[in-house]
Design goal:
The structure is a homodimer.
Chain A lengths: L4 H21 L5 E6 L2 E7 L2 H4 L6 H13 L7 E7 L3 H10 L3 E6 L24 E4 L3 H18 L10
Parallel strand pairs in A: 3-4, 4-5
Antiparallel strand pairs in A: 1-2, 1-3
């Protein structure tokens, strides 16, 4: 994959948002950013535990923020950057919002819906197919999650840790 | 399927919410209700056009309302009633929220993810599988959508109507 400087900056910002949400709120560190060309539109992190709501994945939160800012539900000219491969819900939201392009950091073998656990976009007959680019800052994104779960296991050795928020 | 009186009442309420959102806001009429046993928890309709946001399907909106009311993201003791078969995004949200049971009215051959267009729950290895019951007030739920699109085509004959909000 040929990523641009802007792509690296966008994913770094998503990663910093992920880290902040883990440090401040104890959330599983997953961050997302929406850009239109090289214009930053919205940045968000996983808020599931704070909001006590299963739909508050970073991709959903940032899609809602971007739609509010742009005043429309079709994000056909936008790229979504996310540190972890989207789950089925988020892959579905990405199709619904008609994103042009998705860039994700590390794959999710347990719940990723873009090739890790399953591949929603391999289904024929969807009404939209975004371009998918994977592996941007893959090691950094994976390390953020690994460090988080390691620290949580050390703090709560008896508690079973869910891989995905 | 053996549906109870409560099931019929719950789906009728979802259907009325769907109709109201179409009449008041021009939304595609889809409604959803969350119940815990025979206790009503939350009722919502599709808000995609009002909110200008692709994630505002009835199932997502009602899941957020139910989580806010119950103060938790796990809805393991809840049933979600929805007039139309959930799409991929909403099927994913249903898995994320760990619903006990899903009851839907009419199938969606173009976008339904519980057997109509595809079947997400046929994937082995998901971390949750709700009970699915389909066909409650099927004709009424289908007619609501059919009448809506018929009226829209008569009003805007040149406009292409999306089947799904």
């Amino acid at each position: 994959m040929n990523f641009t400087n802007f792509d690296y900056i966008a994913m770094t910002m998503a990663l910093l948002a992920a880290r902040e949400s883990a440090e401040k709120y104890g959330e599983v560190p997953i961050g997302a950013l929406v850009a239109r060309g090289e214009e930053f539109i919205a940045l968000a992190a996983n808020q599931k535990e704070q909001e006590k709501c299963a739909t508050r994945h970073a991709e959903i939160v940032v899609t809602e923020a971007a739609s509010a800012i742009l005043g429309r539900w079709r994000l056909i000219d936008c790229t979504l950057y996310v540190t972890l491969e989207p789950c089925i819900m988020c892959a579905g939201a990405i199709i619904q919002a008609r994103y042009k392009r998705i860039v994700f950091g590390t794959k999710d073998l347990k719940a990723g819906a873009m090739g890790g656990f399953c591949n929603i976009l391999a289904l024929p007959g969807l009404n939209h197919y975004p371009v998918i680019e994977k592996g941007l800052l893959e090691e950094e994104c994976a390390k953020e999650l690994k460090d988080f779960f390691l620290a949580r296991r050390q703090l709560h050795p008896a508690k079973k840790c869910a891989r995905r928020p």
